[in-house]
Each structure stands twice: as C-alpha cells, then as structure tokens.
Amino acid sequence: MATTHILGFPRIGAQRQLKFALEAFWKDETGPAELTRTARELRSAHLQCQNQLDWQTIGDFSLYDQVLDTSFLLGNVPPRFQHHGEISPLDNYFRVARGRSGKDTPPETAGEMTKWFDTNYHYIVPEFHQDTAFSLNPDNLLAQIAEAKREGHHVKPVVLGPVTYLWLGKQKDEGNRLDLLDRLLPVYDELFTRLSEAGCEWLQIDEPILVTELTTEWQHALRKTYFQFQNCPLKLLLTTYFGQLAENLILACELPVAGIHIDVSQHREEAAQVIDWLPSHKILSLGIIDGRNIWKSDLSGLLDWLEPLHARLGDRLWLAPSCSLLHVPVDLERETGLDPEIKSWFSFAIQKLDELEIIASALAQGREAVAPQLAENAGAINSRKQSQRVHKTEVHQRQTEVTHSMGLRRSDYPIRSRLQQQQLSLPDFPTTTIGSFPQTAAIRQCRFRFRNGDITTAEYHAAMRQEIQHCIDQQRAIGLDVFVHGEPERNDMVEYFGDQLDGYAITQAGWVQSYGSRCVKPPIIYGDITRPAPMTIEWIGYAQSLTDKPVKGMLTGPVTMLNWSFVRDDQSRANTCQQLALALREEVLELEKAGVQIIQIDEAALREGLPLRRREWQAYLDWAIDSFRLMANGVKDQTQIHTHMCYSEFNDIIQAIAAMDADVITIETSRSDMELLDVFEAFDYPNGIGPGVYDIHTPNIPDRAEMVSLMERAMKRIPPERLWVNPDCGLKTRQWEEVVPALTRMVEAAESLRESLHAEANRGERTGILADANRS
User: What's this model's pTM, rounded to 2 decimal places?
Assistant: First the structure.
C-alpha cells in the first residue's frame, strides 16, 4: 500500500490565530506563556488534521520563518544579535526577524528578507562570515517531537538541508559560504543522533536547490554532504519541490539516502525517469497534488497514471502534495460566501489531505471502494471544463487585436522627463511614499461592518473619505512632495482589484502567510478577465481635490496581479497576464483622463515569477514586460508612470526592468544596505529611481544621517537629478506613531541632500566665475 504524508501544513491557523497571538505579544499585551500556548494548540490541531495519513510531519511549524528557525537550530545568529544571555532566546529570535530600535542602545537592523524561491513567502536570509561557527540548539524541535509523541502521532520531523541552507544565505565578507560546509556537517550529524535518541525513524531533509541550475561546486557539495551522512541513524527522505530535477536527476537518485521526494504535479513525465534511475531499495515519494494552487485534482486522471506506477513500486511508493501546504489556505469549508459552482472547483489544505487519502484508498482497495468520492470529483472537474463563466469570446477577440505599438510610449524618457518636470515642478530629491498608510483598527472595523451590511454604502464612503482627508493632512504637515491617498478602502493590493474584475473569485478566509504575522488572501482567477467599471477614480479624485500637490493614482500591475493570485491552470500564465493588462489599461487611461498626473503601477512580484532555471527566464520576461507595457504605455508623455518593486534581488534582470520604460522605479535597498544598487555601476539605468531609504518592515524609526548616507551612496551610481526619496515599501502594516516621525526624518534627509547639492553647485559656479576672471 502507498504511504501517505505531507511536507508541511499551514501554520497560521484557520482563523489566523498565530497572527493575532504574535501581534499581541509584540505589543506587550501578552507574554511568552500565552504565545507558547497558542503555538502548542495550533501544532496539536494541525497534527490532528494529518491523522488520516500514515506519517504526521513535525518541525514545519514556526513562529516567524522556518529558515530563521534553522539558523537558531544551527547556532548561526548574526553577531549583532549575540547577546550572550542578556535577553531571552525568544526575544532575540524576534529581534533578528524584526530588528529593534532602542532608546538607550543602538538600533539593531533586522535580518535581510527575500522571497522563498519563486513564491510569495519571505524568509530571513542567513548571514555568513569567514569565522562563522555552528552549534546545535535542538531543544525546540525535540520538544515538539515529544509533544507530538505524547499525543500518539507517528511523527516524521523535517529540517532544511545543509546545502540549501548555505545556498539561501549571504556571505557578509570576502569568504565563500561553501567553505563553511565542513563546520556545518558535524552539527547535522549531532542532530541526527539526537533525533534518533528521541525515537524518530524517518527525517524529511529538504534540499529544494536540486530543482535549480547548480554549478559543479554546489553539486559536489551535495555529493559530499550525503555521502558523509550515509551512516546516519535515521532514514533520510531527501525532499525537493517547486519543479523538475532535470539535469540534477541522476545526482539526486545516486545520493545515499533512504528515499527521495519529487514534485510531479506539473511534470509527471519525470517520475518514470526517476524510477529507472532510483536503486530498488529506495523509497520514491511523489508530489502528486499541487501544493501551491487551490484547484481540485482530477483524481480519476491521477489514478490512470498512478496505478501502473504503484504496481511497479509497491510499498516503495509514497504519496504527498508537491510541496508544503504552507502556500494554500487552510480549509475550504470556511468559505460560506463563494458561488457553489465555483467553490466546487477548489481544494484547500484540508481538502488536499482528503484527496490524498482517496487516492491511497483507491490504490490499496480498488476504485470501487471510493466510487462516490471519485464520482463527485469527476463532476466538479467536468463542470469547470464546460462552464461558460470561464471562457468569454469577447476577451479572446480583444487579445487578437493587441499590437506591438500599444506597448510603446510616444517619446523617449529624456523628452518625457522634461515635459513632466515642466508640469509637476518638483524639487531635487522629491519625496513620496509607496502608496498605503496605516490600516488602523478603525478602518478594518469599518470595512468589516460594511461587508456585513451593518452600515450603508454612503456611510462607508463617508468614513473612507474622512480617512483620506487624514492621510492628506498628515502628508501636508510632514512636507512630502508627491502625495498618495493612503488606500484606506483597500484590504489588499491584489484582492481589491480582483474583487472588481470579472473572472476573479474572492474568499472570506483564504489566508496564507507571507512572512511573520503578515498574511495575504490571494484572489482566485477562474475565468477570462474583464473590467466592468472604474475601480479607483472616485478615491483618487477626492484626494486630489484636497491638495494642490500631485496625488499618485495607485494601481497593481498585471504581473503582480497574476503572481499574487491563485491562477487558473487551464491556459498559459502569459495568456492570463495579457488579459489582466488589457483590463487594467482601461483604468490607467481613465485615471489620465480624470487629470491624474502621476500613476504608480506596482510590480512587486515581477521577479518572483521567474522560473527557477535561468534558461527559462527570457521567455517569462518577454511576456511579463510586454504585459506591463501594454497596461502602462498608452498614456501621454506628460503623464508620469511609476512602478514599485520590493524585496527582490533584481540585479540580474536589470535590462528587463529598464525595458519596462517606467519614468520612475522605486525599489527596496535599505535592508541590503544599498547592495541592490551595485548593478548601476555596470548598467546605465536610463530613467528615474527611488531607492528605499528605510525599512518599513520593522518598528525602528530611521536615523536621518543614515538615510542621507544611503542616498549619498546612491548618488555615486545614479545622477542626483534622477533620484527620488521614499520608504522601501507601503506603510499599511505600521502605526501612525511610527510613520509620522519616520517620514519626517526622511523629509529632513531630503532637505539636507538638497542643501548639499545646492552648496556644491554654488561652489562650482563660483569656481567657474573665478576661472573666467583669471583668464580675463
């Protein structure tokens, strides 16, 4: 019989219990005991959900991030956080994650954050130095194992593998992080011993870098590591996900482990190749159910494919979702407001466990044993294929009419820039924000009451106008140059638009974790996209009526709408992205017609859509950039187009970003200490740029001198006349008491930069006059 298991389960809770517990703890409303109790209750509930499976996974739960957990497990805490017992381990853990600003002590900068492979999950980047030493700290993991065993669970712990851990990190000096492998492996050996002593039989050890293009050095590191582990007292299940093994297939099959897990949710053909290469004593775990999307699996189709493999492998076959279920919502049964037909097409984490059990039962007992479940599943699959709500002739007709010229601006940037400056009259180093201002409890409560029908549309709109007035007043008092309306009416930068576009479904409780306590509720693209009505004109127009300063129109770009949604799997992503671009283009042109002079189109998720293998990048970038240009570039030269990208390493796609031809790009650079700007030393970026001068993801109030220093570093790479001053991301998650002093210091930093620039210009002018006088 096939063995069933999962790679991980959503940790936030069906009602976001972890989010609320964390935020209460950070506000000192609760203590460690309350947070620990909530975490324990969630772990217990999640294990109960897995009871129908043969193995229950432990170690996937985290209070913030599993990579940060690994750093603490391995004793790799950044030197600036090595307090040697002065504070509790829990407080130190959150300091690494979130930073700290002390009144009487220097601020501690949080660990850098970046995207987990090609997902919208963020991890805290491990930091390495030439003298980095590792030491095992397994108490947390061992306690969770003991806790699960007391509840009677058949546990399979999971840890991040050593080679992927090094690969995910960043070397902070001149060393090579692979040189640390010899110091790291003994710590893993010690961990294996401790887990074996705790009664564990199998260990899931994740090495997802095996689905990326690896140099010879990294391939050698994997061989070295697992040959050193071959006498491990545990059975190791080497786990990969998010793609194919491809050129790493033979390497993975030959590593001396007890079994491997591969993701076949999108590429079934690789299973046969692995079976041919895998030694006959090894387990093969197949990730048959898509762990990153919410579509119901075609169970009969899966069985048609699996039954011959099961006959060949027998008990060596394990079945699982493709990856951790961290990336999907918890439970579809909580969705009481979805259209019943559309809902029948979906499967969330708990439903995916049911699908897994149905498949395993059919393989063990025959399809007749689960005939009612298979019939119900087949009905949902056929309903989706045949539904007229999915396919719209007018959308496909419009796509055939798209031309190359629709993605081109009328003039090149230098001409546009002069026309825009004549119209806007902005100072040097213009200041602005990225879009959102704090989503206060009052705003959330008002939205909740409106959604529940407790207040009228007129009352809701009046409340939102009051919030917009407050945002405009605050920006005026702070002294910003370009305003935003603050987005009080928006619950999420993607869901807000998805809710107003036909072809999207919006869930009530479809939350997934982005980082820490930050959760997002991705909308679901189930059909062809159209825009029935204007989406932002009313709010932007009202904000602009309150001030003479330009107010940016704020939109989310087609690539981010795609990458931060659950996307239909019955047509190409490129096709869906173009549909989004055409619908959003209508909004851009209507904003311009309404007199909006600056339109920001956020493409925060551009890079995370990159395929994991570089050879596939260009095809993705071609259609992604074309979609952005199709949305943005129908405007007049005088209309200034901004775009924003956050928490992405984009140095290796800078040419594609330049091809977007946005007038201004704002980016994250503060946590990376302006390292992201190094690319501009080799690439002459032609347009305006706003490097984020402070990190909004921590409660720290930025230092004015530090922001000036960051901008001075930027000026070494980019001419000052093309630089903007802004935070690195939206301010939605912050509090007003943090935002006002932070932006005030940012404006002061910009004023200081202007004074220095003007003083330098005056000195140059005086020098020129003296030179002319001497020549006379």
Answer: 0.91
